[in-house]
Amino acid sequence: MKIGIASDHAGFEYKEALRAWLSSLGHEVVDYGCFSDERTDYPKWIRPCAVAVANGEVERGIVLGGSGNGEAIVANRVKGCRCGYCFNEETAFLTRSHNDANCIAMGQRIISLDMAKKIVEVFLSTEFEGGRHVPRIKAIDE
């Protein structure tokens, strides 16, 4: 799978770890930055990843920050990017199966790296249920 990934300085450590881990699993990972743990503003890095998701340049996106909240907000401002804020496996499952999320946001200060990997595994392996959820997704995208 082709996956976009981005973070600010507060999510940089997890971005680097997830990028390497996903690559080792055979995924193609496109890194939209940032590229160090030096303080930076997250919209600069998150928006290009969200745009790539919305345009179909990558199949899924992962955005990270200290809490993940600001990153989710930025990603969701891009039409066609549906970013779910995830903090455990259940939130990852529901955002994929019910919301057809094509992007997730996580907080390095909120969860462990082990949990972040579990969330990503669920996010990448869960299918959208369709059915009763389709009209809701259409309403979001309108």
Automatic annotation (TrEMBL):
Superkingdom, natural source: Bacteria
Keyword terms, alphabetized: Isomerase
Keyword Chloroplast: no
InterPro entries: RpiB, RpiB_LacA_LacB, RpiB_LacA_LacB_sf
GO MF, any single term: ribose-5-phosphate isomerase activity
EC number of the protein: 5.3.1.6
Gene3D superfamilies: Sugar-phosphate isomerase, RpiB/LacA/LacB
Pfam families the UniProt entry points to: LacAB_rpiB
Coiled-coil ranges from the UniProt annotation: none
Family that this chain belongs to: Belongs to the LacAB/RpiB family.
Protein name as it appears in the record: Ribose-5-phosphate isomerase B
Species name: Methylocaldum szegediense
